[in-house]
Amino acid sequence: MTTVASNVELAITPLTGTTGAEIRGVSLREPLPPATVADIAQALFEYKVIFFPEQHLSTDEHFALAAQFGEITEGHPTSAADKGRFGLNEINYSERRKAYAGRQDPARKPRRDGWHTDVTFMETPPAISILNALIMPERGGDTVFANTQAAYEGLSAPFREFLDGLVAVHSGEESFGEQIRANGYGEWDGERFTELRPVEHPVVRTHPETGKRCLFVNPEFTSHIKGFSRRESDGILELLYQHMVDQRYLVRYDWQAGDLGFWDNRATMHLVVIDYGAQHRVIQRVTVKGERPY
Ligand SMILES: [Fe+2]
Hints:
- The protein is of the alpha+beta class.
- The chain has 7 helices and 19 strands.
- The mean pLDDT is 93.
- The site of fe (ii) ion has 3 residues, from loops.
């Protein structure tokens, strides 16, 4: 029989005026009482990204934790199971650096400085991403998160109204097409596919838990807004991207190995700060299944 701790009192420290909180006072190693799962989910929906320092979870514990918050998805559409484990997405930034060395073409990525929301190029992007920081650089390698609900609410009423009915096209082709072709296929929601077809999502989505409206475009995967000329679409998106990374909507987190972070993928975008040179950085990520954005 598994024992479940009771009366967990979360010690929540908000990190900025709008976004991010650090939570102590709970061990995520053991199964959580349902009330604590609900409290953590509530904190996530309020702060958009929450960090639990010094948890040091094993991969098994990480999966057991994630399963308490929903159904676990494929690790990534390009790799359903890292290390043979369905749902695991392990990113070893040293290996990735090696793989990309010599392929860096600065002209290829005019807009893509790394800001993205996970897997928006699929019809059902994950709801929640849960990250286990395994190896972190001594200095650098922070992640910056942007609160896309606060960004939406920070726009003027007429501009919000203008955006409300718009539809954007998202594509993973530029980032992952080559990988899909090299693997021969990808997998998402239990289905195999052989090419990354563009998908459509609303520019402003409604959060299924809070009912709040959030901007849902990102520089990595959003190719254009439907029905507009290229110039119009680029102009609107550029304006939104500049607005979304306004300091008021951001939190920057300096991970230590052993920290665990949850982000609400429906209400955020994020970027890894690539300022750690040749230092090692390894993370494991597990994602919880999301709905079709509406
Ligand atoms: Fe990401």
